[in-house]
Amino acid sequence: PAAPTNEEMSLRAYTAKCRLNRLRRAACRLFTSEGIVKVIQKLEVAIEAKHLVVRKDRYLWKDIGERQKILKWLLSYNPLWLRIGLECVFGELIPLESNSDVI
Question: Could you give the 3-state DSSP secondary structure of residue 50?
């Protein structure tokens, strides 16, 4: 097959950007929905009341094994979903650097 023309590539990029923006909006609507907001509020109350804490005998910043577990856990997410989640939580867009950012 012939290489795609500039118009086709431009249309593909535009379509991909529109899909990503729709996905971002849907994720933010979900994150701000009544059900999720209630869960987050309950979680905040539990943390403030010290019902949910990191155990005193766990030194996450010193224990290399624990740090690796946390890093492995974070990296197990698809980068696109992790990016969208971070954008929803922080309320800012994270600019895409390359196509590998959405794979």
Answer: coil
Token pair of 59, please?
Answer: 């030194």
Write out the two tokens for 72: 């492995």
31-73 pLDDT, tens per residue? Answer: 999 999 999 999 999 999 999 887 787 777 788 888 898 889 8
Q: Who has greater pLDDT, 98 or 92?
A: 92
What is the C-alpha separation between 40 and 5, in angstroms, rounded?
A: 47
Cα 7 to Cα 11: distance, rounded to the nearest angstrom: 6
* Owner of token pair 């979903």: 81
Closest CA to 86 of 76, 100, 97, 74: 74
Count of Cβ atoms closer than 10 Å to residue 84 Cβ: 20
